[in-house]
Amino acid sequence: MKWHALSAGVLLIGLSACKRAMPPASPTADPASAVSLPAAHVPETAPASPLQTLLGVFGAAKPATWPAFDNLPGVQWRDAKPLGNPDSHSPETTHYRSGSTLLTGFGDVDVPDGNVGEDAGIKTDNEGHVGVVLNGNATAVLSIALRKFYPSDDTQDILLRQLGRRAAVKRIAGRCALDYGTTAPNTQSNVFFRVSIANAAVPVFAETYIDEEGGNQGPGATNFVFYRTRPDQRIASMKCKRADA
What we know:
With 245 residues, the protein is mainly beta. It has helices spanning 50-58, 155-162, 232-237; strands at residues 36-38, 76-77, 83-84, 95-102, 108-112, 122-126, 129-136, 141-149, 168-174, 191-196, 204-211, 221-227, 241-242. The strands form two sheets. Strands 1, 2, 3, 4, 7, 8, 9, 10, 11, 12 and 13 form an eleven-stranded antiparallel β-sheet that branches. The protein has a two-stranded antiparallel ribbon with strand order 5-6.
């Protein structure tokens, strides 16, 4: 499965396989569990992380317009304004805007340096350095996609580290049978969450999944996709087990 076709081909994250400079994260509990975990080990006075700020705007009572995301602390935009998405097959992804930000709680790793062919090499960067793509229609942002190098199986913990002490991240589905849009067995460990944070008017929904083998595209990746509405169609199409089942 491609990156939900949300990025319109942007955020090409490298061309050479790399070695992780730190051990992989330890696994989390059963992704289909109904456990709702509050954020822990976050000081009450800690400043909002870039992702918390991003989701605070995204989780407004009504869909936020594109200019609402222009000047968010810690988010660097590659595109000065939303661009048309020629690959879109949905009215909810006709436009996109790409950039980058940093997730907290990671250390330095080896990553592709962005060069191609014989010039391709590696560089050192923080594993939490992620590509960001806003997706929406001509007026409003309707989903957000993040992608970082290296597969991580602790995506619930990663989200909690970003979102402040008053956040709650509840698993709503997991243990999916199929990869999205295929009849092939699921290989991407898709998990779905309901995310509530103090600075958002309404909860948002997150889907996380991994690309285990990067091949010529790098060392694999972890993807985070945020929706304003519960992605029941995706959950059903992949035959995921609901947490309340």
